[in-house]
Amino acid sequence: MVETPSNPPSGLSDVPPEKRPRHIAIIMDGNGRWARRQGLPRIEGHRHGVASLRRVVEECGRLGIEQLTLYCLSSENWKRPPQELDFLMQLLEQYMIEERSGILRQNIRISVIGRREGIPDRALKQIDKTLELTRENTGPRLCLAINYGARAELVDAVRAIARGVQSGRLDVESITEQTIDDHLYTAGMIEPDLLIRTAGEMRLSNFLLWQLSYAEIWVTEKTWPEFDEALLHEAIRDYAARTRRFGGLEE
Ligand code: FPP
């Protein structure tokens, strides 16, 4: 857990671009807790969560972050009450429609990782439209993990590799870490440098287990609806002050 410096410079001008993470992944947790504390229904927490999401996407673009990956719905979230899931699906559909012009204006390329099963057709239609419209964009990548689970992703990768071996396209002895990388949903993307988790929980919750191997982890007690530009700056500032060794020794 990190303490806020008493008077941090605004706008992150103290962290040069080369010290900033290229890719930030976020577990957006605590929407329900935030709503309960306000005396509001859980779904209001998710609605306010979308406002945080919008703020963070814009700020990451301004800071020159190349990729932002957000855990929107895990494969385990299907255990939630149907009304809450319906609302999350509506929010997703609405997000894709309402944010489309802003996303295009910011030259953002959208990616979605996760299994399509279970996502209503209406939401899929809007997701696919946004994917298509932003395909050629050259700005930051916004990757949304929807119905995502890292173990399911690894199962899908193993199946694809096994099919490759079965058909003779792949040779067992030539399978490397790169082969696995190439068969994940995140194939072709850069690895996250920084993982942010809100609402104080110290776990990965089946998020990007392979890709986060060397990421720096930063956890705040603040819930996702409370997450703002100042907290994002605090996380990046803390990241910039760390020494990453990737298993080696400090130089
Ligand atoms: C965790 O809070 C949050 C989620 C399961 C969903 C995150 C979704 C959003 C921020 C909005 C939806 C995104 C899009 C793109 C429409 P929680 O409900 O687990 O909170 P709790 O742990 O306090 O109960």
Show the helix and strand layout.
Blueprint: E1 23-27, H1 31-38, H2 42-63, E2 67-74, H3 82-98, H4 100-105, E3 109-113, H5 121-134, E4 141-148, H6 150-167, H7 177-183, E5 194-197, E6 216-219, H8 229-240
Parallel strand pairs: 1-2, 1-5, 2-4, 3-4, 5-6
Helix pairs in contact: 1-2, 2-3, 3-5
Bound molecules: farnesyl diphosphate.
List keywords for this structure.
251 residues; alpha/beta; 41% helix; globular; 8 helices; Undecaprenyl pyrophosphate synthetase
Note down, in words, how this protein is organized:
With 251 residues, this protein is of the alpha/beta class. It has a single domain (29-240), classed as Undecaprenyl pyrophosphate synthetase (3-Layer(aba) Sandwich), CATH 3.40.1180.10. The chain is 41% helix and 14% strand. It has a 6-stranded parallel β-sheet with strand order 3-4-2-1-5-6, sandwiched between helices. Helix 1 (31-38) packs across helix 2 (42-63) and helix 3 packs parallel to helix 5. It is globular. The two termini are 26 Å apart. The mean pLDDT is 95. Bound molecules: farnesyl diphosphate (FPP). Farnesyl diphosphate binds at residues 28-33, 46, 49-50, 53, 72, 77, 88, 91-92, 95, 144, 199, 224.
